[in-house]
Amino acid sequence: MRPILPTLAVALSLCAGAAAAQTAPTATDLRLGLTGEWSGVLEYRDYQSDGLVELPMRATIRTPGDGATLVQQSLFDDGPGRPVWITTVSLDDPAAALSTSASYRAGGTPELATETLAVVEATGPTDWTLIYSRTGEDDDQPAEMRVTQRRVGDELTSTKEVRPVGAGDDAWRFRNRTRLTRVGD
């Protein structure tokens, strides 16, 4: 006769492990929690002067409720009478860990991108780190890009780094960063 308690303990352990694996949030789950009003700054490296420039910004993030789409409208203050609006619509594919987006800016060509999404760390719905990665162009040159997005409570920081395609890890260079605080729903 087999002892029931050790067998039961193993079965419960396997069930608990399976439940934990099923409840791990996807990058899309975490991104959908960004809906609301945000305020802060955009810092970017100016390629002409190689200096850092800081602009005040506000962002509104909404979802139509389909569990996959986010719409972000961002307003940057580029000086008196020079507001810059950028609207980005993104559609996530949680199963493939991809996000495809289109960004629009008055007077500019729409930017289309598909990024790979990776959850680096997630200890809760408002405490996590994601990495977005893709290949595209930076300063009119082919480049690999990664954005590290870190949320801690009502604080959200997104840091974009770039490097020439095929370059080593030491070639990553800061491009821009947004530092935002959630100010409303």
The low-confidence runs, each spanning 5 or more residues with pLDDT under 50, are 8-12
**The biggest beta sheet, please?**
10 strands, antiparallel, barrel
Mean pLDDT: 90
Strand order of the largest sheet: 1-2-3-4-5-6-7-8-9-10
Structural class: mainly beta
User: Tally of extended strands?
Assistant: 10
C-alpha termini separation: 60 Å
| Helix percentage range | 10-25%
Tell the overall outline: globular
Can you write the helix and strand succession as a string?
Answer: HHEEEEEEEEEE
Strand content: over 45%
State the helix count.
2
What's the alpha carbon Rg, rounded to whole Å?
20 Å
Summarize the structure.
By secondary structure, the chain is mainly β.
Verbal overview:
- With 185 residues, the chain is mainly beta.
- Helices cover 14% and strands 59% of the residues.
- It has 2 helices and 10 strands, in the order H-H-E-E-E-E-E-E-E-E-E-E.
- It has helices at residues 4-23, 27-32; strands spanning 36-45, 52-62, 69-77, 83-93, 98-105, 111-124, 127-138, 141-152, 155-164, 173-184.
- Strands 1-2-3-4-5-6-7-8-9-10 form a 10-stranded antiparallel β-barrel.
